[in-house]
């Protein structure tokens, strides 16, 4: 940064501004390389899922998906997501409310703790729950005498899924709530609204896009989680196999068509997630730009915009 | 926000209490149990479990492959980010939307499709096999899976920085007679470094803990293609809970060090760009 001295203005600067682009040849090579890289590394793997799934025709595809074990896996995955999402939405809303609307010591520590699950290997997450609830675990003997099964059963799968997806909603909502501030809520309260009414009628509408964004990402991860669930599920076909676990089992049984069939459903969910995410981002950007334009227009009257300056 | 108090609002006790309750039950207590379990081993036993030759081979592969994958991510990520931000071409928006596929695609699906593409009969593997290169069931397979999973991190770190870069600086450099190459190396590159490094660290951290995509493509051969998380699962299958806990604590320690490093990097980055 120290290497930018201030030279006298050049008299023939305008002619050289084209020097801020690369030659057509370099441009072409870079574009070609990037497109080739993404084609081989993103598009081909994605396309391969559908090609392999449908390789033996629609009837084989339908047959794979209608197998009782596949159907049980789909049901279990949807059930796990349906339990995980409300838990994480509640947690995310509570955490964001406390963090964004109030000042307290240790806020940075709390934020780091909420983010922690993202930096824990999924396998380690699963192991933690085995050590707590497994037969050799801390609560194992007690659970065993009371005939409660958590590991190798639905509760364990839900718990690990809650763990790996915990940060998603909170981390989307905290910045949004911080940005909107607390003035509107204060106004509502001053006008006599109750705390709950304020939350439902003022706060929730103002963060709805961020919330939706968090829910979409959380849902994708909940449906697709493999490592953590794999450790606690016990892999009982038709009972504790989620869709990603069914993919692995079918693959190990050399039933590639069926593995890809289940995988294709997961890939479709991923694509739908990306499509919704793109819409939400587009929506947020548009809103952002409108607000910025309004603010800029209010501040600056008519006059040379940034475009006029660069062209000079 | 300093000096502003929002004490009028209700619900601090309720929301804070709920947050801490869930956080303790779901994250802190299980993590504490893992820690206690590993500490129940004597120091000698812990050291023995954490440094068996098989474990050392697994760490080496995990680290080496993660480093290689993050490097691939950094090089191609910088290029792709540059192309997506600076050039306009048919299909640019489509590609930009697809960048996040590895974030959204379940790791099992990624592993499955990569293993099928890079196996010796696969669409890509058949071109490598005659060269004696095996893309699946090899160390290279681990790198391929990790590079796939980590790819969006670098692109998504570099892209916004590149977008907000003041192009007038480049114009000034060009006006002063710097060639394009020199401008890119000496004006653009220095401001991209922090973002690139952050993306690299994020991809590396993700790769260290990755499991789902790797188990499909690596073959999981002990001492050769077995990564550390897979070894933890093996120890669990042998009912060697102490051994699994010891390996997990090592992995957690590495993850947390990386987390701190990334936090510092991000703080540096945001100060650098503000």
CATH homologous superfamily identity of chain A: MetI-like
Query: Which pair of chains has the greatest number of interface residues, and how are they split between the two chains?
Result: A-B, 106 and 99 residues
Question: And the CATH topology of chain B?
Answer: MetI-like fold
Please outline the major beta sheet of chain A.
none
The overall pLDDT average of chain A reads 85
Per CATH, the superfamily of chain B is: MetI-like
Low-pLDDT stretches of chain A are 1-17, 302-312
Query: Structural class of the secondary elements of chain A?
Result: mainly alpha
Number of helices of chain B: 13
Could you explain how this protein is built, in words?
With 312 residues, chain A is mostly helical. Helices cover 75% and strands 0% of the residues of chain A. Chain A has one domain (67-300): Orthogonal Bundle (MetI-like fold), CATH 1.10.3720. Chain A has 16 helices and no strands. The longest helix of chain A has 44 residues, at 256-299. Residues 1-17 and 302-312 of chain A have low confidence and may be disordered. Chain B is 78% helix and 0% strand. Chain B is globular and about 70 Å long. Chain B starts with 11 loop residues before the first helix and ends with a helix. The mean pLDDT of chain B is 89. The interface between A and B is large, with 106 and 99 residues.
Topology overview:
The complex is a heterodimer of chains A (312) and B (274).
Chain A: H1 13-16, H2 24-53, H3 57-66, H4 68-101, H5 107-115, H6 122-133, H7 140-145, H8 154-165, H9 167-180, H10 183-190, H11 195-206, H12 208-224, H13 227-233, H14 243-252, H15 256-299, H16 306-311
Chain B: H1 12-40, H2 43-50, H3 53-86, H4 92-98, H5 101-104, H6 107-118, H7 125-128, H8 139-164, H9 167-175, H10 180-209, H11 212-218, H12 228-237, H13 241-273
């Amino acid at each position: 940064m120290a290497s930018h001295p201030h030279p006298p203005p050049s008299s023939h600067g305008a002619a050289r501004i084209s020097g801020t682009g690369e030659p057509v040849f370099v441009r072409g090579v870079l574009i070609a390389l990037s497109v080739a890289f993404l084609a081989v590394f993103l598009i081909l793997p994605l396309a391969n899922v559908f090609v392999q799934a449908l390789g033996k025709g629609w009837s084989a595809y339908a047959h794979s998906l209608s197998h009782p074990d596949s159907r049980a896996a789909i049901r279990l995955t949807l059930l796990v997501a349906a339990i995980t999402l409300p838990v994480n939405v509640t947690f995310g809303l509570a955490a964001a409310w406390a963090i964004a609307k109030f000042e307290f010591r240790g806020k940075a520590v709390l934020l780091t703790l909420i983010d922690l699950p993202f930096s824990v290997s999924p396998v380690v997450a699963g192991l933690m729950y085995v050590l707590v609830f497994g037969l050799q675990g801390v609560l194992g003997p007690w659970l065993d005498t009371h005939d409660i099964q958590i590991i190798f059963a639905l509760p364990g799968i839900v718990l690990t899924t809650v763990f790996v997806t915990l940060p998603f909603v909170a981390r989307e909502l905290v910045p949004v709530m911080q940005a909107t501030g607390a003035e509107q809520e204060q106004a509502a309260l001053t006008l006599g609204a109750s705390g709950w009414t304020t939350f439902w009628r003022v706060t929730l509408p103002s963060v709805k896009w961020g919330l939706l964004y968090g829910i979409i990402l959380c849902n994708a991860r909940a449906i697709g989680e493999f490592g953590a669930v794999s450790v606690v599920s016990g892999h009982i076909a038709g009972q504790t196999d989620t869709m990603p676990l069914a993919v692995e089992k079918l693959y190990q049984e050399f039933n590639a068509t069926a593995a890809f069939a289940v995988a294709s459903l997961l890939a479709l969910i991923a694509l739908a997630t990306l499509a919704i995410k793109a819409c939400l981002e587009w929506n947020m950007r548009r809103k952002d730009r409108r607000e910025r334009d309004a603010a800029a227009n209010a501040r600056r009257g008519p006059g040379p915009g940034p475009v006029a300056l660069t062209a000079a | 926000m300093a000096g502003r108090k929002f004490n009028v609002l209700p619900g601090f006790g309720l929301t804070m209490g709920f947050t801490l309750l869930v956080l303790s039950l779901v994250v802190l207590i299980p993590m504490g149990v893992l820690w206690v379990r590993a500490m129940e081993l004597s120091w000698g036993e812990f050291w023995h479990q954490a440094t068996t030759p098989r474990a050392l081979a697994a760490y080496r592969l995990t680290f080496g492959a993660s480093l290689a994958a993050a490097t691939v991510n950094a090089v191609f990520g910088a290029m792709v980010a540059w192309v997506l931000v600076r050039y306009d071409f048919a299909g640019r928006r489509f590609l930009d939307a697809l960048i996040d596929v590895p974030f959204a695609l379940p790791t099992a699906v990624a592993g499955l499709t990569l293993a099928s593409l890079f196996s010796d009969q696969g669409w890509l593997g058949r071109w490598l096999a005659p060269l004696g290169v095996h893309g699946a069931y090899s160390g290279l397979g681990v790198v391929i899976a990790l590079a796939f999973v980590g790819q969006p991190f670098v692109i998504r770190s570099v892209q916004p920085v590149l977008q907000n870069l003041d192009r007038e600086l480049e114009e000034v450099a060009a006006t002063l007679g710097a060639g394009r190459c020199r401008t890119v190396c000496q004006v653009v590159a220095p401001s991209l470094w922090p973002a690139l490094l952050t993306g690299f660290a994020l991809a590396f951290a993700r790769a260290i803990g990755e499991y789902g995509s790797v188990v499909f493509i690596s073959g999981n051969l002990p001492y050769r293609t077995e990564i550390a998380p897979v070894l933890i699962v093996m120890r669990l299958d042998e009912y060697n809970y102490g051994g699994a806990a010891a390996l997990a604590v090592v992995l957690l320690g590495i993850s947390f060090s990386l987390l701190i490093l990334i936090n510092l990097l991000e703080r540096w980055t945001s100060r650098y760009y503000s």
